[in-house]
Design brief:
single chain; mainly alpha; 8 helices; globular
Length: 214
């Protein structure tokens, strides 16, 4: 039971982190290109911490926290939309300038907070985690505190492994592509993010809950 739960939690964390499209991933890419892989990994650690937190919330079913989240959901969703459109538009128009030196302590310390904050307001994280476990045949009900902690840690570790893979790819691109091509990757990714934010805004204005469609 313990090993099965841990493996499924690792798989959920890995897949959610690897296949999600979010402002934190775009900024991690940009920071890896500009400042090097360490900065990107620190930002990824901040985002993975949120995945672990949301997995714990989904596992233990905290009624008060769920109620509070539901009340704040529209504001959280609009915050994500503004970030997606804002960051997407900014990176679509930006000119990339690579810094050959690794980022200093200030930039590294701020990277964790940026990853944490951006992933914290990403809509549907709890629903995505619960849906992923449902697909794997696990109902997140009547879990013990120990099982909930194992699940949360597994999701967090799986997410961090996915971030390591992605940062490695970004670092490989940084070492093998010129600045012009890296700039194109950032701009295209920014355009995709802005389009996602605009689409999400459109569904909200039309009264459609996008999380019910996945």
């Amino acid at each position: 039971m313990f090993l099965t739960l841990l493996i499924k939690a690792l798989a959920v964390g890995f897949c959610i982190s690897l296949f999600s499209v979010s402002p934190s991933k775009l900024i991690a890419m940009q920071r890896t290109f500009v400042y090097g892989p360490r900065n990107g990994l620190i930002l990824g650690a901040g985002a993975a911490s949120v995945d672990m937190l949301y997995a714990l919330v989904a596992a233990i079913g905290m009624t008060l926290l769920s109620f509070s989240f539901d009340d704040m959901r529209p504001w959280v969703d609009y915050a994500f939309i503004l970030m997606a459109i804002g960051f997407g538009g900014y990176f679509t128009l930006m000119n990339l300038a690579i810094d050959e030196k690794e980022a200093g302590k200030y930039k590294n310390s701020s990277a964790f907070g940026i990853g944490f904050a951006l992933n914290l307001v990403s809509p549907g994280n709890i629903a995505a985690i619960a849906t992923a476990f449902a697909i794997l045949g696990m109902a997140l009900i009547n879990l013990t505190t120990h099982d909930a902690m194992v699940l949360a840690v597994g999701v967090g570790v799986g997410s961090m492994v996915a971030w390591w893979v992605q940062i490695y790819v970004f670092h490989y691109l940084r070492d093998h592509l010129n600045e012009q091509r890296l700039s194109f990757i950032i701009r295209f990714s920014g355009w995709v993010l802005a389009v996602i934010g605009g689409t999400y805004l459109g569904t909200m204005l039309c009264g459609v809950d996008i999380t019910t469609l996945v």
